[in-house]
Write a structure and sequence with these properties.
mainly alpha
């Protein structure tokens, strides 16, 4: 899988986390990979590890987003937009090998594919304030 495809799969898995309790996430992760039809390999291991790392830091990530999101709180954001923002913030703040510009661009591209007509500009605006 390419980095973009891996990022998209992480986004899809993180999106599931919005609808389940923390106790159910291990099972959801297993179901996700079964549905994906991927046998365990380095890509699936990377996806799972990154998913867990983002979930562990959700409170911290949301606090960063809430600081810069004028007139918006994470509790009011659309789930697609919020998931993309969380993933990009994690990459920008906690992964040294992902440049901020790449994280933002990838989030905007995924917002165009999965969000509403306004998602890409909303995601870009929030993330630009965090650089």
């Amino acid at each position: 899988m390419s980095r973009r495809e891996i990022r998209e799969q992480i986004f899809k898995l993180l999106f599931r986390a919005e609808f389940y309790n923390k106790e159910d996430l291990a099972e959801q992760c297993q179901l996700f990979f079964e549905e994906l039809g991927q046998e365990e390999n380095k890509d699936t291991k990377y996806i799972e590890d990154k998913f867990k790392q983002v979930v562990e830091r959700l409170t911290e990530i949301d606090a960063m987003v809430n600081e810069v999101a004028q007139g918006w709180k994470t509790s009011r954001m659309g789930k697609v937009d919020l998931t993309l923002i969380r993933l990009a913030v994690y990459e920008m703040k906690f992964e040294e090998d992902v440049p901020a510009g790449v994280a933002i661009n990838e989030a905007v591209e995924l917002a165009k594919a999965y969000g509403t007509d306004d998602s890409s500009s909303f995601v870009n605006g929030i993330l630009a304030k965090l650089v």
